[in-house]
Write a structure and sequence with these properties.
With 249 residues, the chain is an alpha/beta fold. It is 42% helix and 12% strand. β1, α1 and β2 form a beta-alpha-beta unit.
């Protein structure tokens, strides 16, 4: 297949590596740097992965200007959005399917080291989902499960993941303070309690000199989700954000 990757950040570079590993032609397009394909060349591809940034605005909502700019000229049979976008975005874009990425960041994120993910979620119209599923079937073997949902559901899946991880980091940080208050050994406590498979070890490190959650994803995605649904709909999410802002300060 002839595939394109638009945007060469962490996600874009990861997709390019997967495409090339599977033996397909990969064209790249990025407004930064040289040596990339032209827009006309990208539009000759069978599909394109859209991996541009959607940073937070000062008010909280995601900045979709890069997404809008790409879809103003992109004309391929199916555009697979890997950028995080608010619920309701994908259905407004032509020939688009949303596929949330779960690569992660921080210390040795597990999905980054995998040669293929254990699953992909594809959200969009049935005919477009089928096209996208065919693309992924040519990148990953059948051990990678394909989960088909509507676009809004897929978009919420991405925010749900980062909301949960932000909540878990906040929980671990509060338990650190609780252990300090009562004289318990936090590392020993967390090691013991995370043997319960219902809790798990992920995102339970607490760094005394770097409290709370930060990075490219958790702050912007929790803020964007809250901005999308409002404080009345998500009071727990609001509290998590407020606690983290105070802790980071």
């Amino acid at each position: 297949m002839r595939l394109a990757v638009i945007g060469l950040g962490v996600v874009g570079r990861h997709m390019r590596a997967d495409i090339e590993r599977a033996g397909h032609t990969c064209l790249t397009y990025d407004i930064v740097g040289e040596g990339h394909a032209t827009r006309e060349e990208v539009n000759t591809c069978d599909a394109a992965f859209v991996c541009v940034g959607t940073p937070a605005t000062p008010q909280g909502p995601a900045d979709l200007s890069a997404i809008v700019a790409v879809f103003a000229w992109l004309d391929v049979p199916v555009a697979i959005i890997r950028s995080t976008v608010p619920p309701g975005t994908t259905d407004q874009l032509p020939r688009a399917v949303f596929c949330p990425e779960f690569i992660g960041e921080g210390v040795n994120p597990p999905y980054l080291a995998m040669r293929q993910p254990p699953f992909v979620i594809l959200g969009g119209a049935p005919d477009l989902r089928a096209r996208a599923a065919d693309v992924f079937a040519r990148l990953y073997n059948s051990e990678c499960e394909t989960i088909l949902v509507d676009a809004v559901t897929a978009e919420v899946c991405k925010y749900a993941e980062n909301y949960f991880l932000a909540l878990k980091v906040t929980w671990a940080n509060e338990l650190y303070d609780i252990c300090q208050a009562v004289g318990a050994d936090f590392p020993a406590m967390m090691n013991a309690v995370t043997h319960d498979y219902r809790i798990g070890r992920s995102h339970t490190h607490v760094y005394p000199d770097r409290r709370g959650f930060d990075g490219r994803c958790l702050p912007k995605d929790t803020a964007a989700l809250l901005a999308r649904v409002g404080r009345e709909t998500a009071p727990l999410l609001l509290t998590v954000i407020q606690i983290n802002e105070a802790r980071r300060a």
